[in-house]
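Apologies for my clumsy wording, but can you show me some protein sequence, whichever is easiest, together with the matching C-alpha cells, please?
=====
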Amino acid sequence: MNIPADLKYTKDHEWVKIEGDVATVGITDFAQGELGDIVYVEVETLDETLDKDEVFGTVEAVKTVSDLFQPLSGEIIAFNEALEDEPEKVNSDPYGEGWMVKIKFSDSAEVDGLLSDAEYKEIIGA
C-alpha cells in the first residue's frame, strides 16, 4: 500500500499536500481500495468557504457513496475537472492525477492537527 511520507493525512482517509497556503486534497490509496471502483466524484462547493470537517463533496463507488470532508478550513479554489470524465483516476493514481480539490486554507495552525504518514499507518494497521 502506498502512503507517501511527504503528505499529511486525516482520520477520514484523505491526503493533504501543503504548498504555501494551498492544500491539494484527495483520498488515500487505502480509501480507494476499500471503496472499490470509483464511478463518480461530485464536488459542488467550488468557490465556497467551508470549515474544517464540513462535507465538500462525495465519491461514488460501485457499492457505496462516501462523503468527502474538508481537512482544513478555507475556500475551495479548484476542482479536478478531469475526474468528471475519468473518475477512475482516483483508483489508478490517487496521489497524482486523482487529486480532488485545492483549498486556500485560512488557519495554518490546523495543519498541525493533520496526521503524519506514520500516524496514518497506525490507524489503518499498515
